[in-house]
Amino acid sequence: MIKKTDNLNKNKIISRRLFVLVAAKIGLLGIITSRLYNLQISEKQKYEVLSDKNRIREWKTPPQRGIITDYFNNVIADNQRVYQVHLSLEEVSNFNNSIFKLKNIISLKEDEIKKIFDKKEKSKAWDTLIISENLSWNEFSKLNLYLHELDGAKPVLSTSRYYPYSNDLVHVVGYVGDATTQDIQNKKKIEENFVPGLKVGKIGIENSKDTDLIGNHGTKIYEVNASGKKIREISYNKETQGENLRTTIDLEIQQLAQELLKNQAGSICVMDIYTGEVIAMASSPTYDPNKFTHGISTKDWNEIKNNRLRPLLNKSLAGLYSPGSTIKPLVALAALEYGIIDTKFKVNCKGHDHPYELYGERYHCWKKNGHGWMSMRNAIKQSCDIYFYEVARLLGVDKLSFIAKRYGLGSKVLDDFFSEEKKGIVPSTKWKKQVLEESWYLGETIITGIGQGYIQATPLQLCLMTAQLANGGFKIKPNLIYDKEIDLDIIKSKIESEKNKSVSQNILKDQEFKYYERLYRNSNNLKLVLDAMYGSTNEQFGTSFRSRHKEDKYMFAGKTGTSQVKRITDQDRELDLDLEEIEYKSRDHALFIAFAPYDKPRYSLSVLIEHGGSGSKAAAPLANKLIKKILDRHELREKIRKDLKNIA
Amino acid sequence: MILSTSLNSTNYSFIDKLKAVDYFLIIIVAIIGSMSVFSIYSTESGNFSFYTKNHLTRFLVFFSMFLVLSFVRISFWYRQAYFFYILGILLLLLVVFFGISSSGSKRWINLFIMNLQPSELMKIAVIVCFARYYHRTQSSDIQSYKYLLQPIILLLIPCYLVITQPDLGTAILIAGSGLAIIWLAGLNLKYFIYSGLILLVSLPFVISILKPYQKSRILTFFNPDRDPLGAGYQIIQSKIAIGSGGLLGKGFLQGTQSYLEFLPEKHTDFIFTLFSEEFGFVGSMVLILLYALLIFRIIRIGFSCRSFFAKLYCFGFASALFFYIFVNIAMVVGLLPIVGAPLPIMSYGGSSMLSIMFGLGIVMSCKIYSRDPIGN
Question: Which domain holds residue A239?
Answer without folding.
Answer: 58-246
